[in-house]
## 1
Amino acid sequence: MYSEDHSAKSFERPAFIQLLAFLKKSKGRVDLLLFLKWDRFSRNAGDAYGMINQLNRLGVEPQAIEQPLDLTIPENKIMLAFYLAAPEVENDRRSLNTIAGMRRAIKEGRHCTLAPKGYRNARNEQNRPIIIPGKDASHIQFAFEKMATGLHPVQEVLRLVNKRGFNCSKNQLWRILRNPFYYGKILLPAYKDEEEASIQGQHEPLVSELLFNEVQDVLDGRKKNHPSRQRQKEELPLRGFLLCGICGKQITGSGSKGNGGVYFYYHCRCGCKERFKAEEANWIFEKGLHEFSAEETVIDLYMKILEDRTRLSVPDKQKALQELQQEIDKNMARLKEAQQMRLDKEMDMEEYRNVKKTYEPIIKTLTDQQKDLSQSSMEVSKYILPCTDLLKNLPGYYANATLQGKRLIIGSIFSGKLIFEKNYYRTTGVDPVFEEICSTSAGFGGNKNGTFRLNFEKSHEVPRTGFEPVS
């Protein structure tokens, strides 16, 4: 006797495969195969007829205990067809009901299957199934933030999240970074005449839509911000921002080994004799940042002006939102009219699809504009506060920043290259906004030629370590 608990949708069942092997080996010694009902034999009519023929060639008669049929009587084949087709029809109906139920749930913004990484399945107060952020949510957010910088390939981001304790393969991370579910959308697959759609989910997003789109730009190659091939050194934050005061070519930096350790220098890459100690140049630059930090009252005034300029008055904002809503309603009405014409067979499917392709992008664009306008004041305020803090304590931020952070600060202040000579820096390019805010500072001045001089005085306070090699 062989028993199994696998579905009868196919004959790829472990126990049945063993039984078939036994029947082939015992050909001529077995003449009857018994099972409870025909739907336990198979729930697929086509497969069932093929297996009946195979068993007959082995001299075995399949027979249901509760639904016996004498297949030598031609009329009983009608009953056999019914017994075999009924469970297949039942399966198909159950499948259709499941698909319809899942699509209805997705259209309502509900996730129907196992929670993806970063979430967990739970139940709300009405005992309805929901998904909520899980223990890995912070790792997912970290991965998106790192990827959005454009400085790390997927393999490097994978190494960083694995180091944090997030168990994930490269393919899984790639699918996570591509999945709109993490910014609140659920993908509704195309089905029959329905095209694929993106539905606003009821779950809590782990990342913003802006961050998700930035990651897509990086993955698609539209955003490239990769570091230079030359490995950056903590001791050389100014490398890449300096020009030679003698020949005007770019200055690089490197370390020299000597008694007591490695000593770093900035030097010209074109062979001229321009060469100075990185430790002193870095210290003078950092010291000089204290001289052109603007007063707090000036920064607060500029931030207030910026906030006021980016915030619409309440009546103007409401009017703009109303106008956008009117445009959305007008285009939605056109789309619904096309749907009605399709239902009344006044429009063929190809024409209807063309109408959808025309109006759905318009509606999405208008909806996004409406959303951006609703959140504009909040978003600006969110970014203004950190900028204010940075400008008020620029030297402190720079001193405590990572190498990448220091380079971002330098690049944000100076649009041109720096030249270091006689214990001060000069440049021809300063960010105009920064220049305006800090124009009253004692350490920041310009001349008629458009050259800005940063009066960073050298001091005996420059730290020394080890025994510096003779140069």
Note: The two ends are 92 Å apart (CA to CA).
## 2
Amino acid sequence: MRIKENYQGRKVLVIGLARSGLAVANLLTIQGARVTVTDEKSKRELINNIKKLKKGIKILLGRQDSVRLKNLVSEYDLLVISPGVPQENPLVEKARKLKIPVVSEIEAAFNIASSNLHWETLSSPPVVAVTGTNGKTTTCELIAAVLRSNGRRKVIVAGNIGTPLSGVVGRMRERTVLVLEISSFQLENVESFHPYVAVILNITPDHMDRHRTMGKYIQAKANILKKQTEEDFCILNGDDKRCKILEGKAKSQVIFFSSKRALRKGVFVEGKRIVSNLDSRAKVPSDRGELLVKHVRVPGPHNLENALVAIAIGDIFSISRSKIRRAIEAFSGIEHRLEIVREIDGRRFINDSKATNVDACKRALETFPAPIILIMGGYDKGAPYRPLANLVREKVAALILLGQAASRIERELIGSVAIYRVDGMREGVELSYSLSQPGSSILLSPACSSFDMYSDFEERGKDFKRWVKEI
């Protein structure tokens, strides 16, 4: 573990005043740092978060202040950047030239938690960190359900899941287990971040508008392994070739999971059974109650994979098989992720607004039977849509497009299915219903981010549900 970090009296510049920036600015202030926050947005756009800042925090907003601040970067001891801030940000580039440390919000919060809770005295901190292109949120909540089933330790879920780590540090106690959803953006600037269990669910093209190449995207994901030791665990997808390659970067004990084949060591599906065969160094519980595929209630083969990860972590934490099974059976999924909204006249409406990339949309299409009326589109993240063509041709009766990416999606999928263009969600929902028939699944699975029309995927999903309920 790292030595204690002391922020008392240090001048810190926090870049970005969304949820993560707000939380880390307040946390650093509590630790005695002299904090300045900056954002290119205006005071009017950020007024709600500004009101939540602690007294004494200096605020510089708008492009004009950002340009002026570039000449003042040398005055700061540390830059903490929010996940949405790219590496090419002028303030970040200037700080690096001046050799001023630049860290992510997750790194700063982890260091403070480590200091407050004396994690430096432990071989490994009680942290489970989950990354991957898809399935992170569902897997984190499922892991938390399994860990809570033991009833012995407090479990907190945070990170990219909606509540920043900086926002929960004050609620943590010595026996708290932290389950963190970690994005590639958050992993770009970590040095000391050290999870006891690191999970990489899958790696498929995403955020190419930010990372530019798959190599850089994979390296960002691999940073989750950087500080692990042989006392720790790394859980990797044995069916994902990009994940399997990362075994070579791991200094920790590697556990694979697979829904497609038996493994010599790991967690896998064998017929109707789920088998957990971990390395002898893991404390596998003596209660060997049987786990079956049918115990996983959330739909889709990808959710079976998520359950395999939760089972592996349950075994690592010595939770009995019967408790693991009850936790998995009771888990019914999360809002905006393959969420069944309602059924009308034999037509099922499904909210999968969290499907912000092509692979997530593909997984949704694999989950439900034809005929599907698919609503896609949003802000284009740069990945190709052509890989969906065969599945769209096979299962989709009509494709409804909206948002900034609509033209590009149409160019890449033209000829696969009948395509319709709409201006907004209300028109898309109404058209989808008119094009459907009894037995149809009407699926919102955008394959794009939401920022061209909405503040986030949650607002987009709620808008979809609002208009579905109006039918």
Note: The radius of gyration is 23 Å.
## 3
Amino acid sequence: MKIKYWSLIILVTVSFSCKKLTEIFPKDEDNTSNTTNPNADVNSWIFDEMKNYYLWENQMVAKTASDNKLAPADYFESILVKPGDLDRFSWIEEDVEALTASLQGINKVVGIRFTPFYANTEKTKVALSVAYSLKGSPAEKAGIKRGDFIVKVNGQDLTSENYSAAFSPDNLKFTLGDYNGSEIVANSKTVDVVKAEVQTNPIQHYSIIEKGNKKIGYLVYLQFLTKYDADIRNVFKEFKSKGVNELVLDLRYNGGGYISSSDIISSLIVKNLKPGTLMSKQEWNTQMTSAYKSKYGNDVFDTDWLNESNNLGSLNRVFVLTSKGTASASELVINNLKPYMDVILIGDNTYGKNVGSITLSDDKKRWKWGMQPIVLRTVNSLGQSDYGTKDGFTPTFKVTDNAIPFMPFGDVNETLLSVAIQQITGVAASSSNANARIKGIKKVDVLNSAYPLENPKLEIRDMYIEKLPGQK
């Protein structure tokens, strides 16, 4: 069972066992058991862990005032502080192993992200405009690509009520559609796909666009995954070797990932990189702050700039393409860079998540539950962290990404990229070299501008660390 708040957008750490935590902060053994209340022991564990690490632990109800007869997921929710308001993000999962795999970008999926919109003027039908197919996914192997329209799933017309649940079966048949000048209608093409376990490759696209004396590096990055740190360094190595002097970082579809990977990308981009100087800080609750500083020193929560040899060096600014799905580690990169260079945001407001959590599981293996309580807040080198509201970062240029069909990544006429290119060159993008599909462009009424995944339960926007503060 999974408890979600709002879009289940989280900032998380990889799963640390309680043993590792208690090596730093020893706790009394809890040898209690209860045969009359089957939830007593797990709920007691939930409360004790929350009381230790929760960012707002000083506002929690007293343990004796909590209802420990509730099911664990309901109990967890009952002890949160102002859920949906102050705490929009803490959550709990029945299977911590499945959770960990998901955080590492491994899921059983078809492998698409899309924008749902009304397909006809009566608003009785919905079509899905594919934003991308994951590399190596069943969708990509079946030939589904960015800009395609899906109008039926397993023979059923899509509506505003059913499109979110339409992808539930493992075996799916998609009916594709065409734009006929006024609406999206089904064509004769169908595609059969079967869900499979897929490892996300976050480097969805990169290219260099040359405009006069401008060499514009363009990168579509889906998730901050350490498995691909070497690959992202190689992308920037190529950018640097080919003289890239402007950068467009497309984070529309990026809900976060490993903090260490976001630190790498920040250090590859920042102007006048100074390794070893302060990049950002974490703020924990009073108890954890005192304990960590006592054991490791006052700078235990500091993160410094990295010595990245492929730092682009001379950038004065960076353009970031954003959406309501741009969250957590993506927002951290934006906040890291703001004190050092112009960060120009194009698109929609970001999600607004400047707090983070750790994965807590039972080291005694008595149950599989894993928790993601909010335990920290992040600030940049100037102590700034003013985007942690439902409005997130406000874009410099507000652009609605509702022109269909979607242009290919790197197409100079693509809705958001074209705005960045115009700001860089001072010249509007020309349709003369655009993909032929440009002729069919239409503005549509979008139902969800955060580019939902095929399975809403996998919509986890995350930022997680490999090591606790002070651990090398």
Note: Residues 181 and 440 are 7 Å apart (CA to CA).
## 4
Amino acid sequence: REGVNEELDELRKIIFNTKDFIEKIQERERLKTGIQSLKVGYNKVMGFYIEVSKPNLHLVPKEYERKQTLVNAERFTTPELKEIEHKFSYSEERIKTLEKEIFLEFLKELTKYYSTLRKISELIADVDVFSNLALVATENNYSRPQITDTDEFIVKEGRHPIVEKYLPKGEFVPNDTYMDNKENRIIILTGPNMAGKSTYLRQNALIAIMAHMGSYVPAKECKIGIIDKIFTRIGASDFLALGQSTFLVEMIEVSNILRNATPKSLIVMDEVGRGTSTYDGLSIAWAIIDYIANNPQKFGKTLFATHYHELTQLGDDEKRGIKNYTMAIKEYKDEVIFLKKVVKGTINKSYGIFVAQIAGIPDEIIKRSKEILEELEKAEKYIKEKVEIDVPRNIVSKNVFQPTLFVPEIPKEVEHIINEIRSLDLDNLKPIEALQILSEIKQKISNIKF
């Protein structure tokens, strides 16, 4: 600003007044030469110049010095313009030097008050943070959480603080959560896409973080025991530059969780195993839950969302602290309504075709998908009725997965067909692929003697 340094003020005036000065020179030279199209300009390469079009070159005075030739014009300079250019260039450089000197002097003076200024800035930062947390809590009806020495994680009518802001007021569906390190240590959450599983997982992690940082939380009531770490395995990502696929990244993150979690940790896992084949993914997910359940001295509360409905066989095991929950669904005629409510129980349908319909997949494909799905389900049901297969219940309480999921005396041909059907990813199966697979299964069944 003006008044800090007299020399700096004068130099700035030279820079700022140059434009007006140039306009005066241009007007004067036009009157002097009679060249009405004469222009006085400036650029960083040429500096200041007088430009005259070629039809008017015979009117150029002798004192003009040629500086540059263009296609339709010539550029000249004069002793007066040279002097202005010198002052202009000097002023620009001198201004930079002076401004730097003044700034460094200011910093030197400022260091005398460093301790005081730092304390003031910290106080302002605290006021800024807490006042904003208070404002957000007031505007969004947050409640004060209770931080306890217990191992409980209790949330009544919890909400996602970000997702609810994108919905009309009152439309977000709140959900309860009750977990501890005993009978309610692991929640296996099933439900179709778009039902709200990921939102539920994330909102509980966010509520835990907000409670521990001293904020009110988006819930009617909240009581949380001290959590030392929060581990998450959510979303799909890869690092192709490092040669790491989506599944490899997923396994690296899971490995980190299993190696570093403690009984006071909160673990959040979403769709572990989806990055590989169905059977591999199911086996890994099953083994992970088994490992966490069998080692309560190593792991704390765990939220595990999955599309593998087979994992629900691990649930409702109070001794190991595993509970089954699902996202409530209501079927009405040919429609599916996602209630966004977490309830106890399980679900055995993915509703993938309905989600595809919502996404805008052509009706012809949707119709054909339903037909193929019906045929595949009939084929699987037929085989099950013939061989009466079932996963042995005692498998869920052992550390090591048994070599086979099937009862004895099942022909290898039948077992192979069953494995094929179980490994089908119906959500991602193309119609033509489904028809081909169904035809192959039908042919194989017709060759088996029961």
Note: Residues 387-408 have pLDDT under 50 and may be disordered.
